[in-house]
Write a structure and sequence with these properties.
Blueprint lengths: L30 H23 L11 E3 L18 E8 L7 E7 L2 E10 L3 H16 L5 E2 L9 E13 L6 E13 L6 E14 L4 H24 L5 H8 L1
Parallel strand pairs: 1-4, 2-5, 2-6, 3-6
Antiparallel strand pairs: 3-4, 6-7, 7-8
Length: about 250
């Protein structure tokens, strides 16, 4: 009996010879098309650069105003009270007020800095310079030597400004607040000794809230502190003989 070939599993033969695909050589673009593509890409890049570098001329430029603490002590016409010099070592300013921007206290635990109104120089340098000018004008000592001086002095003064701001919590009355901690040391001996340690603080009411008026209020509060300092300096027991013996 002959086998029916259709009753067996059908075996499909796969031709091992792969089909060949005709490879078409790349078509070289026409010279005009290639040039158009290059010009178009350059135009797009140029437009992107213009968009990124464009300036909105309608926006007004930022305008800042700069101020200084102004101290105007009355020059003394009398001879110096102490015939020895004093060296101003410098006055640091507490970090919250060390930057040049004016600082406003708007709530019990909230302060704001004024981006548009600033001191012309850093408060540390400004306070140190003003203390030097005040002591030189009032002639308490024979000379008030600035921090840059290389001359030795038997006494030195330095300190810290913990408060330099405008209190805005009262909507009806702004107050300029300035406080300073002062240390006077005797340096003419082998051991440095503090002979004056005082804290001074003053508030000055400001009628108007413009930055110029606020800075003027800070200047006035600062000068009141310096007047208190002068009173205490003149009350010190400093004798030239004692200083001379200590330096020998």
């Amino acid at each position: 009996m002959s086998e029916n070939p259709t009753s067996r599993g059908v075996t499909t033969e796969i031709n091992a010879t792969p089909r060949t695909q005709s490879a078409r050589a790349p078509t070289k673009p026409a010279a005009g098309g290639w040039l158009s593509w290059r010009l178009g890409g350059s135009l797009v890049l140029w437009m992107l650069c213009c968009m990124g570098c464009s300036v909105d001329v309608s926006r007004p430029a930022v305008v800042k105003h700069y101020y200084l603490l102004e101290i105007t002590p009355q020059p003394s016409e009398t001879p110096p009270q102490f015939s020895v010099p004093i060296k101003i070592n410098g006055f640091e300013v507490a970090p919250p007020f060390a930057d040049r921007s004016l600082v406003y206290r708007v709530a019990d635990q909230r302060y704001e800095s004024d981006f548009y109104n600033e001191f012309f120089v850093a408060p540390r340098a400004m306070v140190t310079a003003r203390v030097t000018d005040y002591l030189a004008a009032r002639r308490i000592f024979s000379a008030a030597l600035p921090p840059s001086s290389t001359v030795d002095a038997p006494y030195a003064i330095e300190g810290l400004v913990p408060s330099l701001y405008v209190d805005m919590r009262d909507q009806n009355q702004a107050k300029a607040v300035f406080s300073i901690q002062v240390f006077v040391t005797r340096t003419g001996t082998s051991e440095r000794r503090i002979i004056l340690d005082r804290a001074y603080s003053h508030e000055f009411a400001v009628a108007e809230r413009g930055p110029e008026q606020l800075v003027a209020g800070l200047s006035h509060a600062f000068e009141l502190c310096l007047a208190d300092l002068e009173r205490d300096l003149r009350g010190l027991d400093i004798t030239t003989e004692a200083v001379g013996k200590a330096e020998k």
